[in-house]
Structures are given as C-alpha cells and as structure tokens.
Design goal:
By secondary structure, the chain is an alpha/beta fold. It is 32% helix and 14% strand. The strands form five sheets. It has an eight-stranded parallel beta barrel with strand order 5-6-9-10-11-12-17-18, surrounded by seven helices. Mean pLDDT is 85; it is low at 1-47, 325-345 and 355-359.
Length: 478
C-alpha cells in the first residue's frame, strides 16, 4: 500500500546506503561529496509564479525522498521519474540541460540537432501567447522556432560532458536531417559515440523545416518515413522513438510504419499548426517579424484534450499489435470497477494491423501536449503513456516545476493506493469503445433498471396472495 505523503518537508539522509550512493554519484560527476545534514533540504529552490500553493516533493537524483515510487523502465532505460524535458528551448544547450538534471527531471530530450546547423536560421520574435480574457492566464503558446542552430560538433561535446557528469540520467538526442541515407547514418553514429542513451527522430516539426522536406514533411509521407526509419534502425544500437505529427488525418498510420520498421517507441504529440491571431491595430498576424508572419506550432494547455485523444489512439494500436509492450494494469485492483473493459466482446475502436507479427517486441509511448500538473500526467499514463514530456510548461514555470509534477502524481497514486506508475498505466484504455456500443450499453442499463423496479404499475396487477408484500413494496419510509 502506498505510504502517506509529506510534501516540501525537510529531510535527512535516509540511510548509510543512500548516503554512499549520493557520494559515489558526486564523485563520478566531479562534485564535492557532502551528505545532507539533518534538517537541511536536499534541493532548495524558489518556485516560479503560478507554483505557489501547489504540493512539491524534494528530489535526489530525480527520485522523490518520500511517497510512492515513481521509477519507470522504458525500452531498458531506467528513469528516476516519468517526467522528461520535451525537445525545444528547455534542452537547447549544456547549461539548461544541466539545470534540468539538477532540479530532478527524469530525462531530457535535447533540442533537435542536424548535421549542418548553418542552414538553420531562426528569427525574433518567434513566440506568441493566447491568454485568458482577463490576461492573467496563458492558455496557448505558438512558436515559429526552428531546430538547433548550434554547430553539431558543439552539441556532441555537450552531450558527452553531460553523460560524464550525469552517467545515471537519461539523455535523449532528438535528430533530424535531409532525405539522404549517409546523413542519417552519420548523425546516429556520432551521437551514439557521444554517449546519448536514446534517440527521438523529429518527424513532426510543423514549420520551416518542411520547406526543406524535413520534419513533418517526412512524418506525413509513409513511404519516406519507412525508408528513413529503416536507415536509422540499421545502425542504431540504442532505443529509437519517433515523434509523431498531429497535423495528419490519422496519426496511427505513420506510427504503425515507424513501429513496423523496428523502432522501439513513439512520442506524441508535437505542436499543432496554427495562426495565433491578427493584431487589430496593425492588421498584421502574430508573431510579427518585420511586418510579416508564418503559421507555427501551437502548444500548452489548450491542446491537451487533442493530445490525450491522439495518445489514446496510439496506445490502442500498441496494445492491439504489439502485445508484449501493451500497457500493464491489474484488473483486480480495488480502485477498478469489476466491469472494467466488459463485456469481453465489446468492439475496439482500433483494429489490429493485418499481418501483424504474433510476438512483437515491446513498444513504448511517450505522451505530451499541455501537461502542466502531475494530475495531467496521470491522465496520459492512464491512457498508456510510459513517460510524459513537458516543454512549454517549463518555459512558463521554470525547471523547478518537476518537483510539483512529482508531488501531484504521488498524490494521485496515494489516493488510489497505487504503489508504482506501472500499477495504473493504461488502466483507462478499457473504457473506450464505439458510439454504437455506448448506445447498446445505455439501453441495457435502462432495461435493467426497469426490470428491478418494485411496486404495482397498475390496479390490474394486484394479487390476493401477495397483497401485503405488494403494499409494502410501495411504502417510501420503510
């Protein structure tokens, strides 16, 4: 049973073994090996605006010092918690990725790199916000930012440095390049040599890069997608995820191509193509660069319902076609109604792929899109996500947000007595069905209520033998 939670409290070294572990990791990273004194917080941070009043938990090397265990293992990668920095500005260089690890993020997906950064030309301003009517809350965020404009060699050196200092933390290289086999082989080989733990292929950047037949231009073309995935799979010796674009009719089609090509997982969703708005004074669209703009990627809170639906679809595909990697959940858990997933013959909205392998290798899903709280993360995990990624939320609240995310997820777990993330991953998938089946279920429920109704419906239903019981059945204050 999950233990009670005490968030934001002062902690001491829990045991000699935990002190030794921290000392060893400190030595590996070249930092002073000083065990925390009694009554001193392991990680003291100042919360950004908007985090006041939210629960938080201290993290040591990404692991909460109290409460339910948040560790997850995905494609052999061991994360101290399921919260991962999404590819973008929060993972753009050594300094910010180090900050993410120091604050306790479970992993970092670096900003997307390519072989020739000189071809990447960013502009400023490149962001625009959608705010609530009173202007107090950011609801949506648009960007027209491109992938990393830093030299590939510089990023490789920083990957290497990060892995030397944080050997136990998960660093994922986001990669993208042109439709040339030699480019993909080189970028994979050199990133692996730098020590990264996994790859995320950016098949989904919605602006700028598609003009060069990269990003979403590849992710929307299943033939090209299959070929590029094949090139990467041939040379990669570490897990590879494909980041899927939501700017397509059926997100499951390219996802199946990626998984059938041998990739270990998918990430969803990237940003949604959008126009943030038009300035009614200047008549120019936002964000405005020298009086002009271009459609860009939309993210943050407003896209969460869309992201949840896309992740649900992808999780259903993984469950139906890659069974050994299907979400694991206990059907006998006390928090789950006995009829979860019933009836057995209920139609699934996602059909298995024709000719799918009978014993596929495990596949994973990293969910993202509008996650700002640990409770949001719980929704993605309930719909089958192994990990969850946050990008815009970090840009709004800062890197300490991870301590709130972990505490809130633990709070949800404690409420339902879940002892691990795997206890509830995918648990809500069984409640999705077709609209036709919903109609059938509702009619069946109404029929049962009518059958269970007590009392006399009309005077001709009275009987002499059961008169007393029939009278009693219509008394309201028994």
């Amino acid at each position: 049973m999950a233990s009670g939670l005490t968030f934001g409290s002062c902690i001491a070294a829990s045991s000699a073994s935990s002190c030794s572990r921290r000392r060893l990791l400190s030595q590996r990273r070249g930092r002073a090996a000083v065990a925390p004194a009694v009554g001193v917080k392991v990680l003291q941070v100042v919360a950004r605006e908007g985090l006041e009043g939210r629960p938080r938990v201290d993290l040591v090397d990404g692991r909460p010092v109290t409460g339910p265990d948040l560790r997850v293992t995905v494609n052999g990668l061991k994360f101290p918690n399921p919260f991962v920095i999404g590819s973008g500005p929060p993972g753009t260089n050594y300094a910010v990725m180090k900050k993410a690890f120091d604050e306790g993020w479970g992993g970092v997906v670096a900003k997307t790199v390519s072989l020739d950064a000189a071809l990447v030309k960013n502009v400023t301003p490149r962001y625009a916000k959608l705010k609530s009517a009173d202007g107090a809350e950011v609801i949506g965020w648009q960007n027209i930012e491109l992938i990393s404009d830093r030299p590939f060699e510089v990023m490789l050196a920083e990957f290497k440095r990060l892995k030397e200092e944080y050997p136990d933390r998960i660093l994922i290289a986001s990669i993208m390049d042109e439709y040339k086999r030699e480019n993909w082989v080189e970028i994979v080989t050199r990133c692996e040599a730098a020590g990264v733990d996994a790859f995320e292929i950016n098949f989904s950047c919605p602006h700028g890069m598609p003009e060069r037949k990269m990003g979403a231009a590849m992710g929307q073309d299943c033939e090209v997608l299959a070929e590029v995935c094949g090139w990467v799979h041939e040379v990669a010796t570490i897990p590879v995820w494909a980041k899927m674009t939501p700017n397509i009719t059926d997100i499951t089609e390219p996802a199946r191509v990626c998984l059938d090509s041998g990739l270990e997982g998918v990430t969803a969703i990237n940003t949604i193509m959008s126009v943030m708005g038009v300035n009614l004074d200047t008549l120019r669209p936002e964000p405005t660069v020298e009086g002009y703009s271009t459609p860009g990627g939309y993210s943050y809170k407003a896209i969460r319902p869309i992201a949840l639906e896309k992740c649900m679809q992808l999780a259903q595909v993984i469950k139906a076609n890659y069974s050994s990697g299907a979400p694991v959940a206990s059907a006998t858990h006390a928090a789950v109604p006995a009829h979860a997933g019933a009836p057995p013959a209920a139609p699934s909205p996602i059909a298995p792929t024709a000719g799918a392998a009978s014993s596929p290798a495990p596949r994973s899903l990293s969910g993202m899109g509008g996650i700002e709280t640990g409770f949001h993360a719980a929704e993605f995990i309930l719909l089958g996500s192994n990990t969850v990624q946050v990008c815009t939320g970090v840009m709004v609240h800062g890197y300490p947000l991870v301590q709130n995310l972990c505490a809130e997820l633990q709070q949800f777990m404690a409420k339902h007595e879940f002892e691990s993330v795997e206890d509830f991953r995918g648990l809500s998938l069984g409640y999705f069905t077709t609209h036709t089946d919903l109609v059938h279920r509702q009619r069946e429920a109404l029929d049962k209520k009518k059958a269970a109704r007590v009392g006399i419906a009309s005077d001709d239903k009275w009987t002499g033998d059961g008169f007393v019981e029939e009278s009693e059945s219509m008394v309201s204050n028994q």
